[in-house]
Amino acid sequence: MTAKPPEQCQTMIEVREGVDQVDRELVALLARRFGYMDAAARIKAERGAVRDEPRKAQVLDNVGRAAEAAGLDAARIRAVWNELVEQSIAHEFDRWDDLRA
């Protein structure tokens, strides 16, 4: 079942169906993103290369611009992405260690 677009929702049931559908889609995208973290852990020769602050800043800047372009609060979206990036780094450290254990 495909959820209605937000502007067509008339009930909270429809809203919740839409939110649940988006959440499933986001989880699928996060699985793909974390797959790239697995690849990075495999490729990076040094554990110290896992945390890359300049790259983190670039990702947050990119997301801030994309959020603004989409009419969203860039600061709020950057805050969400900051947590996502930190969790991605933690995952990459775990995978880096697992691959070399």
UniProtKB/TrEMBL annotation:
<dbReference type="InterPro" id="IPR036979">
    <property type="entry name" value="CM_dom_sf"/>
</dbReference>
<keyword id="KW-0413">Isomerase</keyword>
<dbReference type="GO" id="GO:0046417">
    <property type="term" value="P:chorismate metabolic process"/>
</dbReference>
<dbReference type="Pfam" id="PF01817">
    <property type="entry name" value="CM_2"/>
</dbReference>
<feature type="binding site">
    <location>
        <position position="33"/>
    </location>
    <ligand>
        <name>substrate</name>
    </ligand>
</feature>
<feature type="domain" description="Chorismate mutase">
    <location>
        <begin position="6"/>
        <end position="96"/>
    </location>
</feature>
<feature type="binding site">
    <location>
        <position position="92"/>
    </location>
    <ligand>
        <name>substrate</name>
    </ligand>
</feature>
<dbReference type="InterPro" id="IPR036263">
    <property type="entry name" value="Chorismate_II_sf"/>
</dbReference>
<feature type="binding site">
    <location>
        <position position="16"/>
    </location>
    <ligand>
        <name>substrate</name>
    </ligand>
</feature>
<dbReference type="InterPro" id="IPR008241">
    <property type="entry name" value="Isochorismate_pyruvate-lyase"/>
</dbReference>
<feature type="binding site">
    <location>
        <position position="44"/>
    </location>
    <ligand>
        <name>substrate</name>
    </ligand>
</feature>
<dbReference type="InterPro" id="IPR002701">
    <property type="entry name" value="CM_II_prokaryot"/>
</dbReference>
<dbReference type="InterPro" id="IPR051331">
    <property type="entry name" value="Chorismate_mutase-related"/>
</dbReference>
<dbReference type="GO" id="GO:0004106">
    <property type="term" value="F:chorismate mutase activity"/>
</dbReference>
<dbReference type="GO" id="GO:0009697">
    <property type="term" value="P:salicylic acid biosynthetic process"/>
</dbReference>
<dbReference type="GO" id="GO:0016835">
    <property type="term" value="F:carbon-oxygen lyase activity"/>
</dbReference>
<protein>
    <recommendedName>
        <fullName>chorismate mutase</fullName>
        <ecNumber>5.4.99.5</ecNumber>
    </recommendedName>
</protein>
